[in-house]
Give the backbone structure.
Amino acid sequence: MVEWLEPLSQTLLARALILSPTLYLLMNAAHIMAIGVLFGTILSLDLRVLGMFPEVPLQSLAPFLSRMAAIGAIVAIFTGACLFSVRPHEYAQNPAFLTKLALVTLGVAHALAVHRGTGWRTIRAGGGASTKLRLSALLSIMIWTSAVIAGRWIGFL
């Protein structure tokens, strides 16, 4: 079923990760830190959109946190792909991994849709968060929390 993924485990990087427990540990640590940056910035932004910490100006906070979340996402996706390459056949058959992949895809698509919407432009212009944007922030928290839980679930299946 997923035999076409097997060549990934033969790449130079995958072989290095397989042969060096230290390199694998560092890649895993980088993945966890990137997830921390991604989730922490998204959670902070979403909570602010929901009305928490009103003394912090959303207009200046939103662009900074969304850029930090994007950096976290890029690093998490890169390091995750590297870790995936070590055992692609196993991960591709792991329901928790597939769930995490679907949730991360949904989360990224959701974030892109929000950034293209009028609610985001209103915030960038100094306006308040609309009800639609607040509901979107709540959905974002649920998606990303679920993705983190699914990621932790991978090792238990």
Q: What stands out?
A: The chain has a mean pLDDT of 95. Helices lie at 12-19, 21-49, 58-86, 88-92, 95-116, 118-124, 131-153. The CA atoms of residues 119 and 130 lie 6 Å apart.
